[in-house]
Amino acid sequence: MPLASGSGDESGISHTQFPASSRACPVWIGAVNRRLIVLLLMLGGAAITVAGGWSDSSHLAAASKASSVQRVIPLHPTYSHDVAPILYTNCVQCHQPGGSGPMSLVTYEDAKRYARQMAFVTAKRIMPPWLPDPKTVAFADQLQLTEEEITILARWAEQGAPAGNLAQAPPPPKLATGWQGGKPDLILQAPPGYVLPAQGTDVYHNFIFGVPVTSTHYVRAVEIHPGDPKVTHHANLLIDRNHSARRMQARHPGPGPGFDGMDVEMESDVFEPEGHFIYWKPGIPIWVEPENMTWQLSPGTDLVLNIHMRPSGTPVPIRPTIGLFFSDQKPSLNPMLLQLDGDDQLNIPAGASDFQVADDFKLPLAVRVYAVYPHAHYLGKRLAAYATLPDGSRKWLLLIPHWDPAWQGIYRYRKPVLLPAGSVVSMRYTYDNSKQNPRNPHHPPQPVMAGNMAMDEMAHLSLQVVTSSPPGGGDGRMVLQEALMRHKLQRDANDYAANYNLGALLLSRQEPAEAARHFEVAIAQRPNSATALNSLGAALLQLGRKQEAVQRLQQAVQADPDYLDARYNLASALAFTGQFAESAQQFEEVVKLRPNDADAEARLGSVLAALKDYNTAEAHLRRALSLDPNNQVAKDNLRLLEQVRNQTGGQPR
Q1: Number of structural domains, the chain?
Q2: Which residue from 74, 235, 323, 433 could staple onto 280, CB 3.0 to 4.6 Å apart?
Q3: How many CB atoms are closer than 10 A to CB 129?
C-alpha cells in the first residue's frame, strides 16, 4: 500500500492512510431567518388546501372556475342556508374551541354573537387573511371570499342574524383534533421545562428533537403541534444533519430545554441545501409533499423547531410535538430554497413612506418554482416579485399590495412556474416608516436598518425551486448555489455565509486555493467561527500547508471544544505532520464522545500502530470493523499489522 509522503515508519503501518473523509471537507451553512410579528387579535383565518402537492391540479382549476360563477344573493339570508357554509369553509379551522382564533364560530349562537364584527372585517378584507393579489398569481391555497359572500354576511348581520331552519343546516366540518394526517409513523415530543414568560416582547425559542431512527427514512409530511396555538404566531422546522443546534445550545443554553434566537444557522458536511418549507401557522392544514419530493431523514439527524411566541399575560408551559409521516418513495426531485434579499439596502429614514429596495438575480439554468415565501417586518408596505424571461416578457411570482406581517405565509403555486435559463428573478419591496403606518413600532418614527429583532427590518424572498440538469451533468443545485453566492458577493464582498458557502463548494470541487481565500474572508468577519476555521484547515491540508492547517484546526477546537469534526481533522493533520502522540490524544477524545464512529476508531488504530502500540492498535481496528465491516482503512491496517507481526516472529513490539 502506498504511503503518504512523510507518513510512514519502518514498520510499514499505514498510520496516515486517510482517504477523503466528509469531515475533511467543509460544512455547508444555511442561514434561516426566523420571523417576527404580532398576532392580530380580531378574527383568525385558515388556508384551505388539498394536501398532496401537485399530483392533481385539475380540481384546483375547476374549483377556481366554480367560485368565479356569480352567486345569487338572497334577499333574506339565514345562518342555516347561507352563512354556515361560508363559515365552515373559511373560518372554523381557526375559530373553534381550543383553536388559534380568539373566539369560536362553530355554532349558530357563536356566529350570531359576532355577526356585525364578521361583516365589518370581511368587508374590509381583513378576514379571511390573504395577502397576495388573487388576480396576479394563482396559488393552490388561495383563500378569499367572493363579493357575493361578503354581501351575504353583511346583509345577514343587518337583518339581525336570523337562524333559519337549523335542522337543515349543513353538518359542521370535522374539526382538527388530534393528528390531521392520521397516526404518524414517528412522534417526537420536546422535553418538559420551558415556560413562556407572562410579559415581554416576542419570543423565539428553538426546541431540539433527536430522531431515534437506525436506518434512512423518507418523509412525506410533517405535522407540528406547537404546544399552545393561542400564544404561537408560527413555527419553522429545520433539518440539522450536523448537530449545529446542539452546539448553539451549549453556548447559549435555555431558558428550559433548547435556546432562544430568531436566526439559526444549519450546517452540514455534505451539500444538502434546504429545500422544503416545513412550517406551521394557525389554521393551515398538514402539507403532504408530492411523491417525488420527499426528503431524507438519516440516523443522527436532529430536527429543530423554531417557534415564534407572544406573551399573553400569564406564564404558559410550552411542550411542542412533531409527527412524521414516512414514505417508501425516494425523492427523484431535489428542491432548493433560492433566497433573494435587500437587507444591505435597508437604511430607512424616519418619515419615509415609500422607501424601496431591490434585488435581481439571473438564473444560470432553468428552474421550476413550486412555492414562495416573502418576508418583511412592521414597515413593509408593498411586496412584489417577478421574473423577466429571456424574450423580455414578465411573469409575476407574487404581488402583495398591502403587506401585513401578522398574516405572512408560504404560498404554493397551483402549477409549478417554469423559468428558462437566463431569466432574471426580481424582488421589489416598499417600506413605510411614516407615522401614518399603523404598524410602525416607533413613535415618533426613527431610522430603521436591517436586523434580526422585531424592531429592525428584513427584505427576503425565498423560492422553492427544482433545477434542470446542467449541460455537463451533475447537480444543478450546485450550479445555482455558486451563481447565487457570487451574486451576493458582488453586493457585499465580506458576506460571511456567501464566502463560506462558496468556499465549501470550491473545496468540494478540489479547488482548495480559491476556497481558502474565501474561508479567510469569512474568518475575518467571524474570527471565532469554528466552522470556518475547520474548513480552512481542511483546505490548507489539501494544499500541503500542514503546519498552517494544524494551527487553524487548533483554533477551531479552541473556539468550540465540542466540535468533534474539527477535533477529528486536527488529529488527522497532526498525524500528517508526524505528531502521532498528539494525534492519538485527539482521536481518543473523538471516540470517547462518539463511541460508534468507525472512521475515528480506524484512524486511532492506525496512529497507535505508528506509535508501535500494536495490541491497542489492533483492538481499535477490530472495533472499527465491528461498527463498519467494510471500513477499508481498518482492513488495510489490520493486514499490514499482521505482516509486521510475521516479520517479528509474532511478537508485538
Answers
A1: 4
A2: 235
A3: 25
